[in-house]
Amino acid sequence: MILGTFIEAVAQILSMIINIYVWIVIIAALVSWVRPDPYNPIVQILYKLTEPLYVKIRSLIPTIIGGIDLTPLIVILVLQFINLFFIKLLFSLARSL
């Protein structure tokens, strides 16, 4: 009972973190369209939060197609897969305990 509740709480927190990061990726993608001031603190935070993951994905697969960078879309799809599959798996594990 206690272990199941703990696992469910962890799954809920992970789901919230994933959703927050998805919004960060969306905001960073939208901001990149308007050529923001690179010295703006918000732009720097968005860059520091998204660029390390973008670099890893770009090193694995080519993500620029027709001049459009699809890395944010790939990140969102992977995060949604994790949220729908692994988090749901944690919830079902918690309910079975």
TrEMBL record:
Keywords: Membrane, Transmembrane, Transmembrane helix. The chain crosses the membrane at residues 12-34, 70-91. One of its GO terms (cellular component) is membrane. InterPro entries: CCB3/YggT. It comes from the Bacteria. Belongs to the YggT family. This is YggT family protein.
